[in-house]
Structure formats: C-alpha cells, structure tokens
Specification:
- By secondary structure, the chain is of the alpha/beta class.
- The protein has a single domain, classed as Rossmann fold.
- The chain contains 5 helices and 5 strands; from the N terminus they run βαβαβαβαβα.
- It has a 5-stranded parallel sheet with strand order 2-1-3-4-5, sandwiched between helices.
- Helix 4 links the parallel strand 4 and strand 5.
- It is elongated, with a radius of gyration of 24 Å.
Amino acid sequence: MQKKTDPLIFIVEDNPTYNKLVVSYLQSKKFNHIESFFSGEECLKKIGKKPDIVIQDYLLEGIDGIEVLKQVKKVNPHTYFIFLSGQDNVDVAVNTLKMGAFDYIVKDQMALKKLVDKITKILVTQQLIKSNKRYKAGITLFFITLAVIVLFLIILSTWGPAKFHFL
C-alpha cells in the first residue's frame, strides 16, 4: 500500500472519456498514484498491488462492480470502495454499502468534487485508525511494564524479606 497522503487509487470505468476525466481531475488535486482500468477483469489482474482505494462504476461490461468489490475484499479487506455510477437508484446504492463500499456517488456535475471529499474522508479515517492503534499499543506497553515491576517487587520481597523492605 502507498503512503496514506498519496494513496494508490484504482479507477474502474468503462467509458474512456469519463475514465480520463476522473484520472485528470484527481491528478489536478495532487493524487498521483492512480491506475485506470476499463473493466473489472483488468482491475482484478492488478489487485496484487493492494490499492488503498478503488473507484468504480457499478455497471461494467463482463464482471460487475459488486463482483469486483467482493473479489478485492477477499485479497485485501482494507481497500476502500467508492462507487461512481450513473445508476441513480437508492436500492443499488444501499446494496453497495451493505456489500462493504465506503460510499456511492451518482455521476452528476458535483460528482468529482464529492469524490475528492470522500477520498479525503478516507485518508482522515485511516489516520485516526492508525493513531488509535498506536494509543492502544502504548497503553498495553504501560500495563505490561507495570505488571513486570509489580512482579519484580513481589519476587524481591518473597526471596529476601529481611534485606528488602517496602517501608
């Protein structure tokens, strides 16, 4: 996976013009690690690169967006998915979220701005998760150290009570 401030992003969009538009827009917003694909099959061939984010159309020729999501999540469950689709259907959007997508954006005049906002939200979420893990590790280390000190004091007081006094 890439450095979180410049994540590896896969774009899966079968419309060449819209694919190029999304890539160009993201690059203009300083996202530089982008790979684009025109089908789910192409994307799955490169899934070993473990993208941080996959932005994809819902309806694709061949393998559809939901199937891509399922297969990628098997390989890398930490990959975030954003569906960017022309399907303005609440049931479709809810289904993608139930399957594990981070969000569903309908292609409209504000879609690319919303997309950047969602990517930013993902990056903030990842930083919070990372910070939380460090905090938990620090707390665990503190209590392990405390337990070792207490154990050491108990051993010293048991083996040499005459030579070791607490008070």
